[in-house]
Amino acid sequence: MSAVLVKGQNGPLSVNELVISVEVAAPADLSALLVTPAGTVRSDADFVFFNQPAGPGVTLRPGAPGASAVLTVALDAIPADIEQLRAVITLDDVNGSFGQLSAPVARVGDAAGNALYEYRIEGLSTESIVIALELYRRQGGWKARAVGQGYAGGFAALVTDHGVRVDDAPQAAPQPAPEQFAPQPAPEQFAPQPEQFAPATGGYPPPLPPLPPTGDYPPPPPPPGQPAAGFPPPPADRDLPNGHAVSLVKGQRINLRKEGGAALSYVKMGLGWDPVKRGGIFGGKAVDVDLDASVVLFAGPGPVDVVYYGSLNSKDGSIRHQGDNLTGEGEGDDEEISVDLARISPSVTTLLFIVTSYKGHTFEQLANAYCRLVDSATNAELARFTLAGGMPFTGMAMGKMFRAAPGADWKFQAIGEGFQAKHPGEAVPQLARFL
């Protein structure tokens, strides 16, 4: 039976081979810092974590299914100039905190599975990181001590304070191809996905409030077809070429009709992104970014409807959102929005496609963000617009479908302009400048 420690209490260690494990009520990482009497590491090699799972005398190993990893320790293999081993718990959710969870538990056992010490870490509140316990030298032997020191400065700050060099700068997304309307490789074909239009659940904000009168919005910008403020004059509008997809640049417009053919009537807007993997010593683990694609319908300068994860269908039934993607991981489109242009209400003149960051991450933490237009009849890609690089915004206007007047032909324009919003309801009052 293990001895129960309270904060600050210690106990002797009589065995050489040890296992440190933790029990946390949310996904979390376990790591270790090997520090000198000065309280710092000798080099980055003394930091054991998910991307560097072995250090002198310490190894990070996968835990049981559904459990956190464990640290295996050989005390006699720890270098003589290392005085302490500090075990650190870090929540995966950077916006989470231990105060929202039941108290985590740290345990020290021997290699045979016998429990030696257990420490329930009480009193945590807003912290998402805690130094749980430490093993330290005392008079020629080793002891375990319950620490329970929460850390509010962030994981990078914690390890930096211990002397670890951190290079966590986000990588720039690749530049789009400079050619316009150049033949592209055969587009990847995506199998149609089953349409799921059930209301979203899982802790999201309540449905959007009714849209305010159009008078509450800024004066309307230039009419469709005229360049908005800040955009360079776009090339002349062209029909979609046959046989290959179009690579668009910012501000460029195209007609939603095929060369020599009729106007398109049923299309899909696919939106995708990849989380940027951390650079430097943290490389290999991507930031968990939850983006949400939405489309806002405008009648002239005023918004009349919003299709998003909390309301998957437009009022007129012309637009259907295929559901929410919480991470951006995986191949292909992360979210898709189907549009039946023939069914759109006659008063609607613009469909503005936006992306917002639910957890407040900025587009600096994303790579390969794009929107692409797909012919729903053939599932072939028609046009693609890729963002040139990360920007310090939590919302992005990706592109818009618009017509000069009810009954006129539809066009598409690539936008790629940012704003600050974590929810489509926060975004709507800022969107008039993109019309």
Task: Please render the helix and strand layout as text.
Elements: E1 3-5, E2 10-13, E3 17-23, E4 28-35, E5 47-48, E6 54-55, E7 58-61, E8 70-74, E9 84-91, E10 105-110, E11 115-120, E12 129-138, E13 141-151, H1 155-161, E14 239-240, E15 246-247, E16 253-258, E17 266-275, E18 291-299, E19 302-307, E20 319-321, E21 335-340, E22 350-357, E23 366-375, E24 380-386, E25 395-402, E26 411-419, H2 424-427
Parallel strand pairs: 1-11, 14-16, 15-24
Antiparallel strand pairs: 2-13, 3-8, 3-10, 4-5, 4-9, 6-7, 7-8, 9-12, 10-11, 12-13, 16-26, 17-21, 17-23, 18-19, 18-22, 20-21, 22-25, 23-24, 25-26
How can the largest sheet be summarized?
7 strands, mixed
**Secondary-structure element pattern, one letter each:** EEEEEEEEEEEEEHEEEEEEEEEEEEEH
Label the structural class.
mainly beta
Range of strand content: 35-45%
Secondary structure: number of strands = 26
Please state the CA-atom Rg, rounded to the nearest Å.
27 Å
Low-confidence stretches: 168-203, 214-220, 326-330
Distance between the termini: 69 Å
Query: Helical stretch count?
Result: 2
